[in-house]
Design a protein that fits this description.
By secondary structure, this protein is α/β, with parallel strands linked by helices. It has nine helices and seven strands, in the order αβαβαβαβαβαβαααβ. α2 crosses α9, α4 runs parallel beside α5 and α5 packs parallel to α6. The two termini are 33 Å apart.
């Protein structure tokens, strides 16, 4: 929840009766919600009782997912890097309790292999997009009793990752803006950041197709093996971390940067 509810007594019988991590009656929006971690987040939030808006550029995939999950899920087309598109997407929303800033893109390359256009493209989506969406959502979230933002960061925002120069920079910015928002709106709105390690998503498969087309199985196995836990993460594992952060059970959690990375940052 956004504001601390000091008027609500905690009774042992209530704790026994209440099913944890429920979001019944709450309204959520997930950017990049049509695939990968975003898709599983939509499924997790809807499964916990929330009404969810999928905000995505991929209209067809978003519509298909919304139809599959059912009546509590809808979609709105949006380019999060375009201020006018974001404004139009929010024009039809009159209430919001949960914002998940999940949409993002990647880039492979050191500073020498990163063009100015690459750099700007990543910042437009990964940082400007979070800014534009959050700014539009903020009045609705502040009006909610349960206002919560979850930003999708990365271990690349916490530790150095070779050949990810621009990506590390953008995810470091997401970590910093999460902390600033949490401090600015403490007691009114909760803001947290989830930082996954390598997760087996269409994003990863796209990377393998682009850079290792003739040895995808071999490189995929290597990526699994280099995680300390011995495998890549699963999108649903990240989604359930997001679900926790949006729930009443996490109402004391704000400004937190939560790594879910199979032990990567422990090393």
């Amino acid at each position: 929840m956004g504001r601390p509810r000091t008027d609500r007594p905690l009774h042992p019988a209530d704790n026994r009766m209440k099913q944890p991590f429920r979001l019944d009656g709450r309204r959520a929006l997930v950017t990049g919600g049509a695939s990968g971690i975003g898709e599983q987040t939509v499924r997790a939030l809807a499964g916990a009782g929330a009404s969810v808006v999928i905000a995505d550029l991929d209209h067809e995939a978003a519509e298909k997912l919304a139809a599959e999950i059912g009546e509590r899920v809808s979609m709105v087309p949006v380019d999060i890097a375009d201020a006018e598109s974001v404004q139009e997407a929010f024009a039809g929303l009159d209430a919001l309790d949960i914002l998940v800033n999940n949409a993002g893109i990647g880039h492979v390359g050191s500073i020498e292999g990163t063009s100015l256009e690459d750099w700007r493209r990543l910042f437009r989506v990964n940082v400007d997009g979070v800014f534009l969406v959050t700014k539009q959502a903020l009045p609705l979230l502040l009006a909610s009793e349960y206002g919560s933002i979850v930003n999708m960061g990365s271990v690349a925002g916490l530790v150095a990752v070779k050949q990810r120069f621009a990506y590390c920079a953008t995810k470091g910015a997401v970590v910093a803006l999460t902390r600033q928002l949490a401090a600015e709106y403490a007691g009114k709105l909760r803001v947290n950041c989830v930082c996954p390690g390598t997760v087996h998503t269409p994003f990863v498969e796209g990377y393998l197709e682009k850079f290792h087309k003739h040895e995808k199985d071999k490189v995929r196995a290597e990526v699994h093996a280099r995680q300390p836990i011995g495998r890549m993460g699963k999108p649903e594992e990240i989604a359930h971390m997001v679900l926790y952060l949006c729930s009443d059970e996490a109402e004391f959690v704000t400004g937190s940067i939560l790594a879910i990375d199979g032990g990567w940052t422990a090393l």
